[in-house]
Write a structure and sequence with these properties.
This protein is an all-alpha fold. Helices cover about 65% and strands about 0% of the residues. The protein contains three helices and no strands. The model has no long low-confidence stretch (mean pLDDT about 90).
């Protein structure tokens, strides 16, 4: 597994995951949409911790800075 996520990408994903959690806990979003957002938030946290996004490899994207 090669790293393909940069620092900014990780921060944005973590902030989105926190926002999804807050929206669910506060009751702003509930039901099926709330569950979907929670699952998406968990995925965002996992990919941020691993520095790897499987969709990026499929589309050939890398936000990670390369060393020269």
């Amino acid at each position: 597994m090669k790293n393909n996520m940069g620092f900014t990408d990780k921060i944005i994903r973590i902030m989105a995951a926190i926002l999804f959690g807050i929206l669910y806990v506060s009751g702003t979003v509930s039901g099926v949409l709330g569950i979907i957002l929670l699952i998406l938030g968990v995925i965002f946290i996992a990919t941020s911790v691993l520095n790897f996004c499987p969709l990026y490899t499929i589309f050939g994207i890398s936000t990670c800075k390369t060393e020269k």
